[in-house]
From TrEMBL:
Residues 1-20 form the signal peptide. It comes from Pseudonocardia petroleophila. Keywords: Signal. This is Uncharacterized protein.
């Protein structure tokens, strides 16, 4: 019984995300979708790591994830510190990024 409660708390904290600077997070068991405002200084904490939109240029977003800076094209995905980081869309007002546990690191 105690292990079940502990496991439930771990899952709750793992899927929880918090944003700042106008960002929005939506987390589930398979990862988190983060919507960053295209302008401003927005960062989030998801799945135990921090993520911040650095900038957008020519259809690719530069994101700092777990202390590493990566540039990912829209529709693309890369591995960072054991997480898969993908850019789902870029508009004039927002950038949607997907962070999920993944292989590699």
């Amino acid at each position: 019984m105690r292990r079940t409660a502990l496991a439930a708390l771990i899952v709750l904290f793992t899927v929880a995300g918090c944003g700042a600077g106008g960002s929005n997070t939506d987390c589930g068991l398979d990862g988190c979708t983060v919507t960053f405002p295209r302008s401003g200084d927005a960062s989030v904490s998801v799945l135990g790591i921090s993520a911040q939109l650095v900038g957008v240029d020519a259809g690719a977003a530069t994101i700092q994830v777990a202390g590493q800076t990566v540039t990912v094209p829209v529709g693309g995905e890369t591995q960072v510190e054991g997480f898969a980081v993908g850019v789902e869309s870029v508009t004039d007002t927002e950038v949607v990024v997907r962070v999920r546990p993944g292989a590699g690191g």
